[in-house]
Amino acid sequence: MNYGAIYENVVAQELLNHGYDPYYYNSKRMGELDFVISDSSKVLPIEVKSGKDYERHNALSNVLECQDFDISKALVLCNANIERKGKITYAPVYMTMCLHPPKAENGIFKIDLTGMQ
Predict the structure, then answer these.
(1) Are 64 and 88 in contact (CB under 8 A)?
(2) What is the pLDDT of residues 21-78, one digit of tens each?
(3) Buried b / exposed e across 47-73, counting CB within 10 Å, b at 16+?
(4) pTM (predicted TM-score)
(5) Which is nearest to 99 in space by CA: 25, 27, 33, 48?
(6) How far is CA 116 from CA 17, 108, 111, 112, in A?
(7) DSSP 44
(8) Nearest 5 degrees, angle CA 34-CA 84-CA 24?
């Protein structure tokens, strides 16, 4: 049985429940990415793999190699242990629960109304 669609739905639910706005990316030139999220004003592409060939991700590799995008890291959620190879971190699918968007700092905002008449 192919668990790819099930894994992708689980990841989508986790991302939404943690406050992310996940996007899907598809380009004829680059390929398709399962999820793209914003992480501290940077883009984090996420691929979800259910099989043993989780290190094969052409679209993700294409996007990481593109200098115009300037993406510093990526995440592949799969059935393997945690491992880092270059810009890509491989992690078990269940670790999606560890992704949390950065919290906005509580600051004091001052409004300058001197220009109003």
Answers:
(1) yes
(2) 999 999 899 999 999 998 777 899 999 999 888 999 999 999 999 988 889 899 999 9
(3) bbbbeeebeebebbbebbeeeeeebee
(4) 0.82
(5) 48
(6) 42, 21, 11, 9
(7) E
(8) 10
pLDDT value, residue 49: 94
CB atoms within 10 A of CB 90: 20
Question: What is the rounded CA–CA span in Å between residue 83 and residue 92?
Answer: 10
Beta bridge partners of 36: 23, 45
CA distances from 94 to 10, 45, 54, 104 (A): 9, 17, 15, 26
Task: Report the SS3 class of residue 111.
Answer: coil
